[in-house]
Amino acid sequence: MTTVTPNTAFAAPADEAAVVAAAAALQARGYHVSRVPNAAAAWQAALDLLPEGAEVFTASSVTADVVGLSQEINESGRYTATRPQLMTMDPASQMSEMRRLGAAPQWVVGSVHALTQDGDLVIASASGSQLASMAYGAQNVLLVIGTQKIVPDLDTAMRRVHEYSLPLEDARARSAYGMGSTVHKVLTLHGDAEQGRIRVILIDEPLGF
């Protein structure tokens, strides 16, 4: 993609009314919701939910990285971490197995790119590798979300994806992998048929993008 300057208006903290509205909307849709003040509290709240020994897939997420969840899950030995296993596999010969491992873990941990005040969750992806587990395949979904990601509606959510999250992810990917990013797939969660399957930790500290 052509380099785009991120629209930093989407980095501004949400006001209290917006956070309260979004939390209430998520709860009304059957999600388990908690609110914490900062990264350290989010880390503890997440670990309180994750059973030791559980199979956990860490979706690519700057928020989960900053909170320290990705490292704890993948490196502590306390969990059956899927991502380290995937990193040892050869896409040329093991792609089918890799798809299955990523699509249906016991837990998936990640974030979103936008959350509307009505409780819609928007996750954008270049590959889509984390979307199947969040939509259906994982038995449990844990999302850590900085409240600066709260927006009024879905139209604004998509603007946030393209005007803010994508330029930052593109720059991160170029630095980390030597190649940029794009939005090929977008998952919007309006609710879930299974009550409590999706757990959301809202973080008042602005984390991730």
How would you explain this protein's 3D organization?
The chain is α/β, with parallel strands linked by helices and 209 residues long. The protein is 42% helix and 21% strand. It has eight helices and ten strands. Strand 5 (114-116) and strand 6 form a beta hairpin. The longest helix has 24 residues, at 154-177. The protein starts with 15 loop residues before the first helix and ends in a 6-residue tail after the last strand.
Short description:
The model has no long low-confidence stretch (mean pLDDT 95).
Output the helix-strand order: HEHEHHEHHEEEHEEHEE
* Assembly state of the chains shown: single chain
Hey, roughly how much beta strand do the residues contain?
A: 15-25%
Average pLDDT rating: 95
List its traits.
42% helix, 209 residues, alpha/beta
What's the topology here?
Blueprint: H1 16-28, E1 32-36, H2 39-49, E2 55-58, H3 62-67, H4 69-75, E3 80-81, H5 82-87, H6 91-103, E4 107-110, E5 114-116, E6 121-125, H7 131-137, E7 140-146, E8 150-151, H8 154-177, E9 185-189, E10 198-203
Parallel strand pairs: 1-10, 2-3, 2-4, 4-7, 5-8, 7-10
Antiparallel strand pairs: 5-6, 6-9
